[in-house]
Amino acid sequence: MYRFAFGRLLQAIPVLLVVITVTFFLVHSAPGGPFSADKAVPPEVIKALEEQYNLNQPVWQQYVSYLGDVLQGDFGPSFKYSGRTVNELIAAGLPVTAELALYAMLVALGVGITAGVGAAMRPNTLQDYLPMTGAMIGICMPSFLLGPLLVLIFGIHLDWLPVSGWGDIPGDKILPSITLGTGYAAYIARLSRGGMLEVLSQDYIRTARAKGLSERLIIVKHALRGGLIPVVAFLGPAFAGLLAGSFVVETIFQIPGMGRFYVQAAFNRDYTLILGMTIFLSTLIILFNLLSDMLAIWLNPKLRHEIQGAK
Amino acid sequence: MSYSSSISSIYPRKWTTGLGVKVFLIFVFFGLTSCGGGESNVSAGNKTGTLYWGNGTEPQSLDPQIATGVPEHHIISAVMEGLVLKDRKTLEPRPGVAESWTISEDGRVYTFKLRDNARWSNGDPHTAHDYAWSWWRALQPALGNLYAYMLFPIENAQQYYEGDVSDFDEVGVKALDDRTLQVTLSFATPYFLQLLDHYSLFPVHQATIEKFGDADQRGTRWTYEGNLVGNGPFKLVDWKINRRIVVQSNPHYWDAKNVSLKEIIFIPIENIVTEERMFRAGQLHVTSSLPADKISVYREAKNPELRIAPYLGTYYYRLNVRKPQLQDPRVRRALAMTVDRQRLVDNITKGGQIPAYAMTPPGTMGYYPESNLKFDPEGAKRLLAEAGYPNGEGFPPTEILYNTNEGHRKVAVALQDMWKKHLNIDVRLLNQEWKVYLDTESAGQYEISRAGWIGDYVDPNNFLDLFLCDGGNNRTGWCNEEYDRLILDVAPSMTSHEERLKVFQKAETMLLDDMPIIPIYTYTTVQLVSSSVKNFDPNIMNAASYKDIYLQADE
């Protein structure tokens, strides 16, 4: 298991290097520089700014010195937010985005697994069709539609919940978490239904039924562990996706997370901020994938054997 | 939309319980218990004197000599102040840090008397020397001050900035003593007093800046909460990235006893749809904007909180006169004459914009530009035929370039349609992301391009000097030496206001005869303002005078 993890971490190094290199040259070749503006910028100013951010050097030289900084964990200064470092901006947004992603994940798991398992218990009945139709809608419904819809109902018409903010007004975390979690809940519902259906048709479940165990016990004690393996495998990418994809929800609900910076950075050609965010998120995605693979191995004896066999 | 109740009917009993518990736990986790019934920001703020202000985007800098945007301007004007303020309605100069001033007969020498109770927000005395030092800093090229040109009316300021003069003593700024500042201009500049209220001429606190870095160093931490020392009615107390900036009344401010607000909370909200919802939910007193498709809703409801006011800005199209089909002024005029501006503002932009037939907005410093441009499809057809394109035949493929934005797209589609209908010419639309569009436009690789100009100060000069031959904002390739002479030499030499305006009118007429641009409309600011916000009058610069505002809930 440790060898497996170590191997995967080693593999991550070239992956990250490719990510850095491609992103670096992509952003530097994108038309428009970080300092171009609607109002003509005097040449003296452009010169002063380029000097300050080393943009007057050849690109490969900038690349080498950037790599050196990144190795030391320094993503450099933001071009746009004068006086802020990229590390500082990530540090400001990460806790918020992570919290949002965590709550969204809880919503996704709570609703998704309940609906999926419930559906699998009575396949091809109303109890199956209804949540699965709901899941299909949930997958198809983009958060930029769902978010405003929820706000309209619960924030404006019913006036139960705040329409925006994060930790400013009690209850303002509910709508964004549900908005962000719904798509994933729907996906998890389908995954857990599929997984459960497969497990429920296995011999050992039939044995359990033959023993006369209650349906509830069969599900909770015997079927869930196997049936949720697809969900577990999905957790890593899902959590990474929630972190990286929270932009829309952050914008709708006025949440001070990382996502808003990421998109603004691209519009502003804030090279260091784009790069820093990309590297940071790539690292997270690699780590979460690894963690969820390890969890899947731990849950699934078949995989464990495969790995040990490969030794 | 209650999730558990709609499902309970189809789930067997035992599952309903399980689901209920889970949903319950999730909601407890989020602290739902305390939701509902809370007091809104607006009604709480009305009692405590806290103004909640929707402020567009996260400010990029609060350094007045680095910042450039509108959100930055709002915050800076709360925490800093210039020698002269503007009247909150008419924008006439009013005493600020300077309690009085005299102007020499030739209009070139200004002598300001500073208040003896002027203080920095840390209690330090605030003197005339602060201005000399601040303006020296504003002219350091290394600082990258985009608004350095605002100081150029001062004698030798431009020469110093460009390195032709190396000794700052030759620049026309002298602190005669602690309370007297003398400013000498290169020539009489009627709008100079206005410039003093622009943040690039605000004073900065030398000791603070030097504590956090070199005077001409960008991006030091002197503008952050706990560090920033200003001289305005408010002081910065909190800055949470992308969340809020909080300023509170400054007890050291010279006019502190007349400042009513205790606190202003600036909230950066990029999404104007969210901003409107926040306003409706009582989380904001003032929004920065309003989505175009909401304007008619508020209008029809006769909502008194909708505010539409003229804004000192012109929405126009650039015509690239270097392109063969646009070289002929008759073609350019024909295009301009077939834009039905009234229909456009009534049906497309809908924000109460004013059709524009000249570059300078009407009423700029008493200047109402005359224009012989009008909507005249028949005349335009004739002009186009004279230029060799009868009924639009043989007109080369032409594109309208605009930056990706729904509002710009609608205008472009409307013009495309009008030109097809009236001139029978086909133009295509090309949208590009903001920075790409800037690049394409600056490189002159366009035929027709969308543009807008918002005035930095209220004077026709600020609109007309865009089209000087080598003006960085010209970008049309149009160049007329007589026009340059009028703007650069003749207008500044005029001693009377009326004479000066006549020169501008002459220049404007030349511009309109040649038509390297198509003026479309004069901007308006459209925003929502809570009825409890008092003394916040609309003005054409959309500048708020925070020291005058007070909050009072309507009964």
Notes on the protein architecture:
The complex is a heterodimer of chains A (311) and B (555). Chain A has a domain at 94-268: MetI-like fold (Orthogonal Bundle). In chain A, 76% of the residues lie in helices and 0% in strands. Chain A contains 14 helices and no strands. Chain B has two domains: 58-265, Dipeptide-binding Protein, Domain 1 (Dipeptide-binding Protein, domain 1); 311-525, Dipeptide-binding Protein, Domain 3 (Dipeptide-binding Protein, domain 3), CATH 3.10.105. In chain B, helix 11 (329-337) packs antiparallel against helix 13 (377-386) and helix 17 (481-493) packs antiparallel against helix 18. The two termini of chain B are 35 Å apart. Chains A and B meet through helix 2, helix 4, helix 5, helix 6 and helix 12 of A and helix 2, helix 9 and helix 15 of B.
Computed over alpha carbons, the radius of gyration of chain A is 24 Å
* N-to-C CA distance of chain B: 35 Å
Could you report the average pLDDT of chain A, rounded to the nearest whole number? 87
* CATH-defined superfamily of the domain at 94-268 in chain A: MetI-like
Shape-level CATH architecture of the largest domain in chain B:
Roll
Q: How large is the share of residues in beta strands of chain B?
A: 15-25%
Number of strands of chain A: 0
SSE order of chain A: HHHHHHHHHHHHHH
> Remind me, CATH topology of the domain at 94-268 in chain A?
MetI-like fold
**Which structural class should the secondary elements of chain B be placed in?**
alpha+beta
Can you tag this structure with a few keywords?
heterodimer; A: about 300 residues; mainly alpha; MetI-like fold; flat; B: about 550 residues; alpha+beta; Dipeptide-binding Protein, domain 1; Dipeptide-binding Protein, domain 3; 2 domains; 6-stranded mixed β-sheet; disordered N terminus
